């Protein structure tokens, strides 16, 4: 169910639990500021999630409140993850849903990295 990205951070969300080691994840990359892991329900040949380690509900929250080091570390983690999974040479798509209208389902910023196949149009009609 889509969430309201203006609500306070929920420490019980699935990504917070993964970061605390309470739930397993198939890690692709980890740094001081980010964790990347395979999506449990992939929508493409390559489907990896990249999340900041800080408690940020959405891109809006992250861009307004994260430190410069967190922002740089997260953006670099997305690029490094694309290279690690081999998506970079053929091209890839990044998707970050923010709020109900976009269909955000987990109240922790996450970027979907899709690749490994032709991805079609930007938006489904």
Automatic annotation (TrEMBL):
<dbReference type="InterPro" id="IPR001310">
    <property type="entry name" value="Histidine_triad_HIT"/>
</dbReference>
<feature type="domain" description="HIT">
    <location>
        <begin position="14"/>
        <end position="124"/>
    </location>
</feature>
<dbReference type="InterPro" id="IPR036265">
    <property type="entry name" value="HIT-like_sf"/>
</dbReference>
<dbReference type="InterPro" id="IPR011146">
    <property type="entry name" value="HIT-like"/>
</dbReference>
<protein>
    <submittedName>
        <fullName>HIT domain-containing protein</fullName>
    </submittedName>
</protein>
<dbReference type="InterPro" id="IPR019808">
    <property type="entry name" value="Histidine_triad_CS"/>
</dbReference>
<feature type="short sequence motif" description="Histidine triad motif">
    <location>
        <begin position="108"/>
        <end position="112"/>
    </location>
</feature>
<dbReference type="Pfam" id="PF01230">
    <property type="entry name" value="HIT"/>
</dbReference>
């Amino acid at each position: 169910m889509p969430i309201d990205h203006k609500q306070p951070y929920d420490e019980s969300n699935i990504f917070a639990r993964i970061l605390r080691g309470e739930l397993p994840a198939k890690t692709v990359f980890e740094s001081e500021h980010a964790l990347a892991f395979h999506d449990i329900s992939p929508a493409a040949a390559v489907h990896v999630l990249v999340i900041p380690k800080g408690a940020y509900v959405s891109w809006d929250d992250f861009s307004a409140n994260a430190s410069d080091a967190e922002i740089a570390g997260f953006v670099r983690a997305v690029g490094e993850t694309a290279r690690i999974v081999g998506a970079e040479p053929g091209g890839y798509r990044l998707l970050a849903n923010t709020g109900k209208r976009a269909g955000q389902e987990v109240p922790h910023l996450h970027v979907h990295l899709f690749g490994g196949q032709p991805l079609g149009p930007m938006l489904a009609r």
